[in-house]
Every structure is written in C-alpha cells, then in structure tokens.
Amino acid sequence: MNGFNATVFAYGATGCGKTFTISGTPSDPGIIPLTMQELFERVKEANDEKSTELSLSYLEVYNETIRDLLIPPGQEPRPLALREDNKKGVTVAGLSEHHPKTVDEVMELVMRGNECRTMSPTEANATSSRSHAVLQVHIRMKPRAGGLQSDVTTATLSLIDLAGSERGTVTKNRGERMREGANINRSLLALANCINALCDPKKNRHIPYRDSKLTRLLKFSLGGNCRTVMITCVSPASTYYEETYNTLKYANRAKNIKTTVAKNTVSTKVHLAQYQQKIQEQSNEIKRLQRELAELRRRGAAPA
Residues 30-67, buried b or exposed e (16+ Cβ, 10 A)? Predict the structure, then answer.
C-alpha cells in the first residue's frame, strides 16, 4: 500500500504443508486469503482519499513451462514466454489479468487456479504439487483530489507456493512422476545457486537467474527492489531428517540476502485533453464532500 514490492514464498520438502500454509482451507484460511482480506480492508479505509486499481494473475511453472491457471473453462493451456525490461521487470506475455472487488472473488479465482494446477499422488504426499504456483497482485493508487500533477504509487505482491524438493527413495516415483521430480529439483537447485551467489561476500559475482524459469520469475524478488519473506516448512518425521536439515540450511543462507528497496512512485502530469475529465472528477469530489458535510450537520456533529 506504501508502494513497495513484496514477495512471500513457501519452501520445503514435499508433504511438509506448503500449499496448506499458502492457500489453507475454507475453515482454516492460509496466507493468501488472510493477506487479501487485510489488503481489501486497507483499500476500503483509504477509499476517501485514494483511487485504487487492483489486478491479479495466477500462473504455474511446470516442467520448465509457464502456464496460465486462470484461463476460461474448456480452453487448452498453452506455454507462455517470459519478457524482461528495466521498467517493468520480468513479465509473462499473454498472461490473463483479473480485477476482483472482494476477498470472496479472490478466493474463487485461487480455488479455480488450484483446480487447474498439476498435482499427482506420490508415496510421500497424496496430493503432491508437481509445479510452482505464483499468484501476483498488482496495485496502482493515486490521490482522488490530485491537481494537474499527481503521484501514482504502484506495487506488486507475489505469493509463491513452490513445489517440494524430493528424493526418489522417499517418493518412490517412476516414469513421468520421476521426470517431474527431476525438473522440480533442477529449478530448486537453480534457486539455491542464486541464493548462494547473492550471499557471497565477493561482490560482482555472476548470479545464474537464467538457469531456470522459476529463478527468472523471482529475479527481482530475490535480489532487487522487493521486500521478501521466506516461509520454511519442515516435517517432524524421522524419515525427513536429511530434508529438514538441508531446508534449514537453505533458509539460514537466504537470511543473508540484502535487498535495496525503493518506493515505486511516478509523478504524472495531466494532458490537455484530460482537463475536462479532471474537472469532472474534482466536481464529483466536491459534491461528495458537500453531501457528507450536510449529513454531519443534520446529525448535529458539525458546526453550521
């Protein structure tokens, strides 16, 4: 809401509760519904002073292919390409954007996306996520009573449910599941290599973001203009001892990443052709304030 990009991602071995932590259930909501509920409450509180535009997209990275999870029913998912520039950062070409107005609408979109997500049973987890899911919320705010020049604040909130790292001896995968597991581990290894490079005390070390589609997507979240939180999920089971140890080492390393965060504010001038629209907006604002003042006077809460 203050114009800072933010990322939350859950990491851990398969079956440790990442999807439950991020999405939750209707009776026990997770990070996404709780975050969106607070976000909408804050947007509502600031509604008198600021005009807010909110858009949402949901994608998965499956076998190094990016797919839109919110395509219309009956439409075949197609691979999407990554684009990168200095202004917009990393974007996905052809990704659908949605404009929910309430928390219920957000959860409806998330549940629809989760149903389209690639999941399969393994020996370690009956509903194992075979892909990395990325939910992105884009916020654009501007003052309602702005003059001919106003500051527009933008930010992106990314909520990421990573697929679980897995060992063949635990999951007992074969065939297609084993190939999926190899791709999952490959992208998580690329993420580990990026974290190691970002934490290296030697400056100007090459950071291998291009080794995986996942790390390219997370490029600006890990080492750029973003506040990042990593939720580490571990299992208390003795069979997961090595995974738990490695996951905690991974998370401990990630703590050392230092990011440079800047507020995303752009000062915009009103074009000559927009004067009429601006006058109309300010006229509506004056009428709204006059109605509020008349209502307060009627109740006796404001001086005449």
Answer: bbbbebbbebbeebeeeeeebbbebebbbbbbbbeebb
User: Directed axis angle between helix 241-254 and helix 175-199, to 10°?
Assistant: 40
| Rounded distance between C-alpha atoms, residue 73 and residue 89, angstroms | 30
E-state strands within the chain = 6-12, 50-62, 65-68, 82-85, 89-92, 119-120, 128-129, 132-143, 149-161, 227-233, 265-269
Residue with tokens 């070390």: 205
Structure tokens at 46: 């600031």
Q: How far apart are the first and last CA of the chain?
A: 36
pTM of the entire predicted model:
0.78
Q: How far apart are CA 14 and CA 237, in angstroms?
A: 12
Separation between Cα atoms, residue 19 and residue 90, nearest integer Å: 24
Confidence of residue 126 (pLDDT cuts 50, 70, 90): very low
Contact predicate 167/124, CB 8 Å: no
Smallest CA-to-CA distance from 30 within 90, 114, 127, 99 is with: 114
| pLDDT tens, position by position, 236-265 | 888 888 888 988 988 898 888 888 888 888
- pLDDT tens for each residue of 195-227: 888 887 777 778 888 888 888 988 888 877 888
Token look-up 């597991």 returns 181
